Amino acid sequence: MAKNETKAQRRERAREAAAKLREEEKKRTQRNRLIAIIVGIVVVALVGAAIWYIVSGNKKSAISDAGEQSSTEITTKLPQEINEFGGISIGKELAAGTSNSGVPRVSIYFDYLCSHCTVLDDEYAETLRQMAQDGKITLEYYPTSIYPNIPFSADGQRIEFWIAEHAPDKYLDFHNKVFADITIPLFAQPTEGGVQPPDVSALYDEAKLVGLSDEQVAQMKQDIDGGAYKELSEQALKQFTKNGFTGTPTILINGKQYNENWANGALLKAIENAK
């Protein structure tokens, strides 16, 4: 990436890369459906098609059908760092599960392989982090897998949950670093063959870089490979669709979907107006 490349240029490159990624995922999904039919697992194929329709129908920054957080679909036992809607809150301490009182609550549903999420993070991550630390907002991140057939998306969601529970003081550093080191550059510099999702091992490497020990990372990998947080992941998707959300990033302010274009500082103005 050229050193003098502007954020606008990075965003445009991300949008171009997104189209290629969606086409690749569409082909991947079609192949998976065919295999499912061959082996007779018709129900699984239908569920996969339904998920694809729901979560990939809208990738625009301005969402036409606003939703809000409603009664929870999440019934699995949750650690205290994860709320009843599957979110991870950040307050002054910058640790998972903390919050600030009497200030706007800014919630962001994201996927590491969502190109528009990288644009949002590139513009606002540092500012929102500072606002949370200054006690001006409670920041909430909602890990969401809109590409459940791609391990970097599916496992990435569950790794976020694991770190929030087991290393809450490292959670925000990890979240920000994955975007900064992996996904923003990924969409800014697509190859001729399109965006190639990174290997999940890159996420474990990032965990070490933010301070998790080798033992913690080994335990995390063992837990994720063993299916940790799969039930939460499935229920979080049900919650996402029940709330009327149709794509990522989805932004809420005080539990209500922000239904406007968030770019170029507009989100900060909306937060200010919510005080």
Automatic annotation (TrEMBL):
<dbReference type="InterPro" id="IPR012336">
    <property type="entry name" value="Thioredoxin-like_fold"/>
</dbReference>
<protein>
    <submittedName>
        <fullName>Protein-disulfide isomerase</fullName>
    </submittedName>
</protein>
<keyword id="KW-0812">Transmembrane</keyword>
<dbReference type="InterPro" id="IPR036249">
    <property type="entry name" value="Thioredoxin-like_sf"/>
</dbReference>
<feature type="domain" description="Thioredoxin-like fold">
    <location>
        <begin position="105"/>
        <end position="272"/>
    </location>
</feature>
<feature type="region of interest" description="Disordered">
    <location>
        <begin position="1"/>
        <end position="23"/>
    </location>
</feature>
<dbReference type="GO" id="GO:0016853">
    <property type="term" value="F:isomerase activity"/>
</dbReference>
<feature type="transmembrane region" description="Helical">
    <location>
        <begin position="34"/>
        <end position="55"/>
    </location>
</feature>
<keyword id="KW-0413">Isomerase</keyword>
<dbReference type="Pfam" id="PF13462">
    <property type="entry name" value="Thioredoxin_4"/>
</dbReference>
<keyword id="KW-0472">Membrane</keyword>
<keyword id="KW-1133">Transmembrane helix</keyword>
